[in-house]
């Protein structure tokens, strides 16, 4: 917004000086009309943007249309504009629609160069989430019968990703004891999970 104001001030100052020098009744030039419309766009930007966003259903598209109108109004405007608000709004609306039409209507999923992040949702769906919760619940039930040592070894090695030596030092055991505890814990969990599947 600040950039628009600076550009509009720089654009309208020469036109206003020229009009004052020629007299208040002098007809506006094409360049002066364009400068007046750019100044109007700046002054009414918020209202125009809101109205355009409601018409187009997209705030980003409204911003793009108004930016396009700002650039277009750098060129002289032929004829006199009676309603600056309606003129700028129509121009921005048409430019936004043109920009929308210029975008590709479809993307080929077979094209490795095509970037389509919006088409691929990495988040798990409802079914995957339900299955994950069910698996975790079954695993938690399977771990209920483990000793404290077996539970600590299983979690440290397979969940936290610690090394055998680190876990052995932490629990004050030999690495051979760690291996034995892990083997017993895995066997216990596997048997409990098999029983739960057989009963399902």
From TrEMBL:
<keyword id="KW-0804">Transcription</keyword>
<dbReference type="InterPro" id="IPR039425">
    <property type="entry name" value="RNA_pol_sigma-70-like"/>
</dbReference>
<dbReference type="InterPro" id="IPR014284">
    <property type="entry name" value="RNA_pol_sigma-70_dom"/>
</dbReference>
<keyword id="KW-0731">Sigma factor</keyword>
<dbReference type="GO" id="GO:0006352">
    <property type="term" value="P:DNA-templated transcription initiation"/>
</dbReference>
<keyword id="KW-0805">Transcription regulation</keyword>
<dbReference type="Pfam" id="PF08281">
    <property type="entry name" value="Sigma70_r4_2"/>
</dbReference>
<comment type="similarity">
    <text>Belongs to the sigma-70 factor family. ECF subfamily.</text>
</comment>
<protein>
    <submittedName>
        <fullName>Sigma-70 family RNA polymerase sigma factor</fullName>
    </submittedName>
</protein>
<dbReference type="InterPro" id="IPR013324">
    <property type="entry name" value="RNA_pol_sigma_r3/r4-like"/>
</dbReference>
<dbReference type="InterPro" id="IPR036388">
    <property type="entry name" value="WH-like_DNA-bd_sf"/>
</dbReference>
<dbReference type="GO" id="GO:0016987">
    <property type="term" value="F:sigma factor activity"/>
</dbReference>
<dbReference type="GO" id="GO:0003677">
    <property type="term" value="F:DNA binding"/>
</dbReference>
<dbReference type="InterPro" id="IPR013325">
    <property type="entry name" value="RNA_pol_sigma_r2"/>
</dbReference>
<feature type="domain" description="RNA polymerase sigma factor 70 region 4 type 2">
    <location>
        <begin position="137"/>
        <end position="189"/>
    </location>
</feature>
<dbReference type="InterPro" id="IPR013249">
    <property type="entry name" value="RNA_pol_sigma70_r4_t2"/>
</dbReference>
